[in-house]
User: Which sequence fits this backbone?
């Protein structure tokens, strides 16, 4: 699986958009980009994923660059409950393929 | 959405006891489930891949005789920590994804906090 690089931490203002970057310059053509977050003492929560096109759901938007070497997760209106560690993972989409977690980005939403 | 249920949420037991943790996919079938372990202030580390009807695949350094995995049906995988000792105390998390459909995301249980006294 392709390795990802994320900032170690970032602060966001409550009510503002939070933009979380992820670099995956060695991504293969059949690898998806997945975003998860982990709130303290809970299991990871799935946020969104994509292959080539930008995606949006009720939680967030995912912007993937045209060359697919990087992506950005956008939380449109950050709340205090969005404080968590966010993980960007790339992986082939088949059922048996495991997820490898890196260090993620520790996001602190401040009032 | 897809839901993965993990039980128990937490367990405290004496050293030498064996502890079983269950992971269920509630609204989908999963040929493959995954077991992770997380120590304080660290990221999730994959322990093993659980395959329905066959033996689990363990990551390097994980003792298969210590962490017994059974995946008897398409909706249930169990992890048994045998003869648990204080160093086995950790946060154990399972995940599963629907069998069909390329690119489907994995969904995680809420984790089991295991404390060995």
Assistant:
């Amino acid at each position: 699986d392709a390795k990802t690089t994320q900032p170690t931490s970032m602060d966001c203002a409550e009510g503002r958009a939070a933009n979380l970057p992820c670099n995956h310059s060695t991504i293969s053509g059949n690898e998806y980009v997945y975003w998860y977050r982990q709130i303290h003492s809970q299991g990871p929560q799935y946020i969104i994923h994509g292959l080539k096109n930008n995606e949006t759901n009720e939680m967030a938007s995912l912007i993937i660059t045209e060359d697919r070497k990087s992506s950005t997760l956008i939380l449109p209106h950050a709340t205090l409950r969005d404080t968590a560690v966010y993980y960007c993972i790339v992986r082939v989409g088949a059922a048996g393929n495991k997820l490898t977690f890196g260090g993620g980005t520790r996001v602190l939403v401040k009032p | 959405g897809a839901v993965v249920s993990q039980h128990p949420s937490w367990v405290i037991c004496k050293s030498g006891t064996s502890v079983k943790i269950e992971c269920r996919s509630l609204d989908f079938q999963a040929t493959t489930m995954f077991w992770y372990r997380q120590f304080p202030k660290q990221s999730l580390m994959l322990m093993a891949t659980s395959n329905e009807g066959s033996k689990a695949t363990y990551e390097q350094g994980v003792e298969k005789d210590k962490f017994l995995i059974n995946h008897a049906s398409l909706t249930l995988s169990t992890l048994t920590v045998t003869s648990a000792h204080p160093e086995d105390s950790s946060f154990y998390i399972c995940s599963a994804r629907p069998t069909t459909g390329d690119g489907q995301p994995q969904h995680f249980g809420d984790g089991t906090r295991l404390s060995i006294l």
Summary: Chain A is about 0% helix and 45% strand. The radius of gyration of chain A is 13 Å. The mean pLDDT of chain A is 94.
